[in-house]
Amino acid sequence: MIKILLLEDDYLYRVSIKEFLEELDFYVDDFENGDDAFDAIFENSYDLLLLDIRVPGMDGFSLVEYIRKEKLDVPIIVLTSLTDIKDLSKGYELGCNDYIRKPFDMIELKFRIEQLIKNNFKTNEDFLELENSFKFDIKKSILYKDNEAIDLSQKESEVVALLVLNRSFFVSIETLHDRVWGNKDISYSDIRMCIKRIREKTDKYFIKTKRYVGYKIDK
């Protein structure tokens, strides 16, 4: 599942965008304050950032500048009502990938997001390289070891996909419960057993654990 951060201080606009994207099966973390968005960006791993410019706290331009200085290559779309060419040029110079001017049609946003994500993943030929000769096909959700596919169940594959998309960051067991099992009535011990089965099929160090924090797969 593609993970998107949305920074938008207009409540109705933010809710509309979030609900639209979630209907398309994107996962969306939304913020109205630039400082809160900044913290989330460097605590999590996102596949795309949608950043409004004029927001409380750190503004969108400052966010883009800092993100690029820290060498994060996540795609960025700027959402703005600004029309001055100097403002548009500034965003591109700082490192955003695309602009979309308000008001915009949600379908236009959908196409721009899909194209950016597609182009970003293409640089790795649709595979994400992981530690110890593992790689993950992001389109087909297939895990490989030394170019041989590993036979995972649907839930095991969904767990791996979520951890891979958040690679190098810990994902809590609560998040796994929510995102993979949809908060269904299963125990955390069932989730731990699923992790155990994945390790048995891969490597005992493939999924790393940090007590009270969660699980992660490294690049």
SSE layout and pairing:
Elements lengths: L2 E5 L3 H13 L3 E5 L2 H10 L4 E5 L7 H10 L6 E5 L4 H10 L3 E4 L4 H17 L4 E3 L4 E4 L4 E4 L2 E2 L4 H12 L7 H9 L6 H14 L6 E3 L3 E3 L3
Parallel strand pairs: 1-2, 1-3, 3-4, 4-5
Antiparallel strand pairs: 6-7, 7-8, 8-9, 10-11
Brief summary of the model shown:
The protein has 219 residues and is α/β, with parallel strands linked by helices.
Write down the secondary-structure element order: EHEHEHEHEHEEEEHHHEE
Shape: elongated
Termini separation: 17 Å
**CATH architecture classification of the largest domain:** 3-Layer(aba) Sandwich
Please give the CATH class of the largest domain: Alpha Beta
Overall mean pLDDT score? Answer: 87
Enumerate the spans where pLDDT stays under 50 for 5 or more consecutive residues: none
Total E-strand runs = 11
Q: Main β-sheet: number of strands, strand sense, barrel status?
A: 5 strands, parallel
